[in-house]
Amino acid sequence: MITRTFSIAGFHKDDEARVEEILYDVWGVRNVAVNSHLGLATVSFDEKAASWEDFTQAVADSGFEVNG
């Protein structure tokens, strides 16, 4: 299992549930934690089921910008 943290531009308190749902929809996710105050999301996932690009693409497809 891998855990990665990344920042999301334009991410606000009202977006937390939506971002969590977006990330949980990616196959292989074990845990998601979001912090709109810091603009961060942390994802723990099975690297055999999902790749980091799957998460960044899911976030980008939802209209947010991933910053690392």
TrEMBL record:
UniProt xrefs under InterPro entries? HMA_dom, HMA_dom_sf
Which domain of life does the protein's organism represent? Bacteria
Q: What is this protein called?
A: HMA domain-containing protein
Q: Which organism is it from?
A: Thalassobacillus devorans
